[in-house]
Amino acid sequence: MRRIDPQHPSAARVSVTIDYQERELVAGETLAVALWEVGIRRFRNSVRLKESRAPLCLMGACHECSVMVNSRLVRSCMIAVEAGMTIRTGESE
Ligand code: FES
User: Fold this and answer.
1) pLDDT, average across residues 59-69
2) Rounded to whole angstroms, how far apart are CA atoms 49 and 31?
C-alpha cells in the first residue's frame, strides 16, 4: 500500500467515524497510518492482560493493529481509508 502525503493538495479527505467521533482522514491512506496521524495510540487491547496494543510490523503479520471496521475485525495496516468507515479501537482480539 502506498503512502500519501496528507499535505499534498491532491490528497482527498473523507469523513469516517472513530470511536463515535467524526474525523477526516486521507482517502486511500493505510488505515493504521491514518489513525496514528490523528493521535490514536491504542488500537486494541490484549485479551489476557488488557494491555494497549499498536501497530508493529505494518505488513499484516503481527495483528497488533487490529481494529473494528464496520463491525468486522481487520488488520488496519492492510486496508485503505474509505469514506463512511465506522472504526472502533480498543477491542480485544
Ligand atoms: S501492524 Fe502488524 S499486522 Fe498490522
Assistant:
1) 97
2) 25
63, part of any domain: yes
Range of the domain at 33: 13-92
Global pTM reads 0.89
The answer to whether position 80 is within a domain reads yes
**56, part of any domain:** yes
Task: Tell me which residues have their CB closer than 6 angstroms to ligand 1.
Answer: 32, 55-58, 60-65, 75, 77
At 24, the pLDDT band (50, 70, 90 cuts) reads: very high
Looking at residue 92, its pLDDT comes to 67
Residue 34 C-alpha to ligand 1 middle, in angstroms?
14
Size of the chain in residues: 93
Those residues whose C-beta lies under 8 Å from the C-beta of residue 26, and which sit 6 or more positions away, are 4, 6, 11, 12, 13, 14, 34, 81
